[in-house]
Specification:
Blueprint lengths: L1 H7 L2 E2 L2 E2 H29 L9 H11 L3 H12 L7 H4 L1 H35 L4 H26 L4 H18 L1 H16 L7 E4 L2 E8 L3 E6 L4 E5 H5 L3 E3 L6 E9 L5 H16 L4 E11 L4 E9 L4 H21 L25
Antiparallel strand pairs: 1-2, 3-4, 3-7, 4-5, 5-6, 8-10, 9-10
Length: 360
């Protein structure tokens, strides 16, 4: 018994064998328990999560999969050393555990961001392929920010004074931003286009005197295919600082038409013209009639104005409807004996009195 008691009380690195046995046992039990818990969560709870599952579950599955074995080992080791007497090497364990936790948090954060951006990228690729490049850039910037924060925390835990480092990075960042302000302006404009969506690929837009269909939204430029066939390249910052008319978002098209009728037309026929216009417009498909009136007295014509809405943004369909209405007006008003006016001028010449004519 004395030998066993002496053996158990034998101290190694400031701790008895009993303390070492308790520490090692606690470490092994915790390491095994954490491994089993990770397996249960991955295989049992999240094992059935697939591509059709809600995005939150897919992100959670990807995050749990990034839980490193060395992190579980480090957690178990840190807790196991808590039963040992304080020593120089045990006092280092909290710092080592903190470093490991920060690195693991970085892995979890980047895993969550990567999976979230992957799912969003897949949806964006189907809806708007031109903005995928900007989405990739956003993901890269977010991951870079996470690891920059992890690096600063690690340096701070290692005893490095990061105040001067952060100040230096701030000054360097300002210098870089000033040197590349045009590029950065286009870059942030690209992100604004991605998130605010003033237009998407396929929309027909008008910017100043230029117009065309959007083909590609890049990190620095947006490319538009004009009606005459050439490609027009806009700087993203210049594009967002301009007034953009987006015909791709048009749900209906308001059309204002007018006709001129001769002054010799009888009043009863003039009263029938708004009704004739209404009947012709209402016969068209996907068209909503608004109004028709004798608008004004022109120099050489009585002017009728009518308004209707084409209930689609298709320009070709709008032109087909307009042609059909114009032809029907020409035919029906002609059948009614109503004449269309054109610019005319009547010259009245006064007669000369006979007494004023000289005969000699």
């Amino acid at each position: 018994m004395d030998l066993l008691e002496q053996l158990l009380n034998y101290e190694f690195l400031g701790n008895s064998l009993v303390a070492w046995s308790a520490s090692i046992g606690l470490f092994l039990v915790l390491w095994a328990a954490l491994g089993v818990a990770r397996y249960v969560v991955r295989k049992r709870l999240l094992g059935s999560v697939g591509d059709a599952s809600p995005p939150a579950l897919q992100v959670a599955r990807h995050v749990v999969a990034q839980t490193a074995g060395w992190f579980l080992f480090l957690v178990a080791l840190y807790i196991g050393t808590r039963v040992l007497a304080p020593a120089r090497w045990t006092d280092m364990m909290p710092r080592v555990a903190t470093i490991g936790l920060v690195v693991q948090l970085g892995l979890w954060a980047t895993a969550a961001l990567a999976q979230f951006m992957t799912l969003r990228r897949a949806r964006q690729l189907a809806a708007d392929p031109g903005t995928v490049a900007a989405m990739d850039l956003v993901g890269f910037v977010l991951r870079l920010t996470v690891w920059a924060a992890v690096l600063l925390v690690l340096l701070d835990n290692l005893g490095v004074n990061i105040t001067a480092l952060v100040a230096g990075l701030g000054v360097g960042g300002i210098a870089v931003a000033l040197a590349a302000q045009n590029v950065l302006g286009d870059l942030f404009s690209s992100l604004s286009i991605v998130f605010d969506k003033p237009f998407v690929v396929g929309d027909f837009i008008v910017v100043g005197e230029l117009m065309g269909s959007v083909e590609h939204v890049g990190l620095k430029t947006t490319r538009v295919r004009s009606l005459s066939g050439e490609q027009v390249v806009f700087s993203n910052s210049d594009l967002l600082s301009s007034r953009i008319r987006n015909y791709g978002r048009m749900f209906e098209r308001r059309i204002v038409g007018s006709i001129g009728i001769t002054y010799q037309t009888p009043a009863d026929k003039l009263r029938r013209i708004p009704t004739i216009i209404r009947e012709i417009v209402e016969r068209q498909a996907k068209v909503r009639f608004d109004r028709a009136h004798l608008h004004s007295f022109g120099d050489s014509a009585l002017k009728f104005e009518f308004v209707y809405y084409v209930l689609t943004s298709d320009y070709n369909y709008h032109m087909d409807v307009q042609q059909s209405i114009n032809l029907a007006l020409f035919e029906q008003l002609g059948a009614e004996g109503v004449e269309f006016a054109y610019p005319t001028q009547t010259l009245h010449v006064a007669g000369v009195p006979a007494s004023s004519v000289r005969t000699d």
